[in-house]
Amino acid sequence: MNERTLNITGKGKVSVKPDLIILSFQINLIEKDYDTAVNKLNERVESLRNVIVRNGVPKDNIKTKIFSVDTETEWDKKKESRIFVGFRARHDLELEIPFDNALTNAIIRGIAKLNENIEFRISFGVKDTDKYQSQLIENAIENALAHAKTITKATGVKLKEILNINFSFSEISFRSYDDTCSDSISLDCNASMPDLNPSDIKADKTITITWAIE
User: Fold this and answer.
1) Is there a contact between 69 and 55 (Cβ–Cβ < 8 Å)?
2) What is the pLDDT, as a whole number, of residue 152?
């Protein structure tokens, strides 16, 4: 005789106030000569780092996410073939800082003064992600158990031991984006800076528990 079982999927939810601001920068340019492209790119990156350091943030805090140098071509109608335009050099960087509007605006204003047309994006994050990952799992288990108790009470069956717990081990991203920000720091150095007040970051996780029942 097969053992009777009850499968319940519980859902855990958390809502967290962001305590990090994440600035993502993209610097790219095209030059005919490879060395010129790389050297000019490095100069712009160094100027960006200098702005950040002048605002009291350690240089090592800004991290490279993407670095690439590719050949750029375009279609020539007369020759009916693609022709070489130059080397496109690209460097994407990311900086995490504590949630501080004044510091964020100082960095953005400093980069605007460089007049380098550096593209950027602002996002928000949570520092202690492990804490909230654990909270999600606990909430999902509590939710599954509450549903199981409701069902067994209504049907007159009894829960026995847990036979299986199934949940994804994938890490949840505690990050959200500010879609109101410009895609490029082509700002006048006297322009008004954003007063950032993001919504809470919401995350959820599901866990399926199988109980034996009698």
Assistant:
1) no
2) 94
SS3 206: strand
Angle between helices 101-112 and 34-54 (to 10 degrees): 140
Give pLDDT, residue 181: 47
Read off the tokens for 122: 């602002």
Is pLDDT above 90 for 14? yes
Q: Which CATH architecture has domain 17-126+175-197?
A: 2-Layer Sandwich (3.30)
With vertex at residue 183, the alpha carbon angle to CA 116 and CA 97, rounded to the nearest 5 degrees, is: 85
108 sits in the region (left: phi over 0; alpha: psi -120 to 50; else beta) called: alpha
Q: Check if the beta carbon of residue 210 is closer than 8 Å to that of residue 5.
A: yes
pLDDT band at 189 (very low <50, low <70, confident <90, very high): very low
Give domain limits for the chain.
Answer: 17-126+175-197
Q: How far is CA 52 from CA 28, 47, 94, 200, in A?
A: 19, 9, 12, 27
CB 160 within 8 A of CB 214: yes
Q: In the beta sheet, which residues pair with residue 73? A: 84
For residue range 124-167, list pLDDT tens digits in order.
Answer: 999 988 899 899 999 999 999 999 999 999 999 999 999 999 98
CA distance 69 to 23: 23
